[in-house]
Write a structure and sequence with these properties.
single chain; 94 residues; mainly beta; SH3 type barrels
Length: 94
């Protein structure tokens, strides 16, 4: 039998954790991106809302537009183009 999944964050104790000295700042939450800006997807573990899947950690992409408070980012995974919806605290300018 196949083992049942326990959610998206299972097995991410080290992947999705901040250091003891990492300070919370409001600046990443207020970032603005324009279409065609290049960004890197770095999930912020302190904010669960609008977090992209961990498989996209460290992937660079291009902002295609906005959807509410989030941004639509197009990334290349192999030969495929995928669109990720992520909030600005999970995106860094490339």
């Amino acid at each position: 039998m196949v083992r049942a999944s326990k959610g998206l964050r299972t097995g991410t104790r080290r992947k999705l954790s901040k250091g003891a000295r990492d300070k919370f700042t409001v600046t990443p939450y207020l970032r603005e991106f324009k279409p065609k800006d290049r960004v890197t997807v770095i999930p912020d573990p302190s904010s669960h809302k609008g977090m992209p899947h961990i498989r996209f950690k460290g992937v660079a992409g291009v902002v295609k537009g906005r959807r509410g408070d989030s941004y639509m980012v197009e990334v290349s995974i192999g030969n495929k183009k995928k669109t990720i919806t992520a909030r600005p605290e999970h995106l860094n300018p490339a």
